[in-house]
Amino acid sequence: MYDHAYINYLVHFHGDRDYFECHEVLEEHWKEAPASERKDYWVGLIQIAVGLYHQRRGNFKGALKMINSSINLLTVNTGAITQLGLQANELLVQLQRVKADIIEYKPYKSFTMPIADQALKTKCIEECKKRGLIWDQESDLKNEFILHKHSKRDRTDVIKERELNLLKRQKDRGYN
Fold this sequence. Notes:
The chain has helices spanning 4-16, 19-32, 40-56, 60-75, 78-83, 88-103, 118-130, 144-147, 149-152, 156-172. By secondary structure, it is mostly helical.
């Protein structure tokens, strides 16, 4: 019923609070659709994770930009958010609270997505257990890898792909 990437997003969001990974799995899913068919509500959910990632790291300017954009996208997509098994209005209320905290430079605190579909929540909790995670646990603010994942992750594959794309572009332009 729900996309595996979305369940994966929710598991990371509530299990290990790895917001960078939330962003990665949902962005990949979003990009699978042709550009003309991509849904803004996926971007809104991605931006929640990115905003929380920034807030947790003390980047309040980046956090505010992402949360504002998320609120704007999700406000016009409440029907789709409801179809994703969430309580759209409650999610928007929670995001307004997060926004107020960010404006006041308050430190990050974990929050729970308001899941309306009990079957979805059960599926996510089961997936957390399989991965050795505890559903809805607080974020580990001392886990340096999760806190700074964008700079600490292995980027070997990304770098190789960029190099191959550069070589291809050079070849296509006749530089080889």
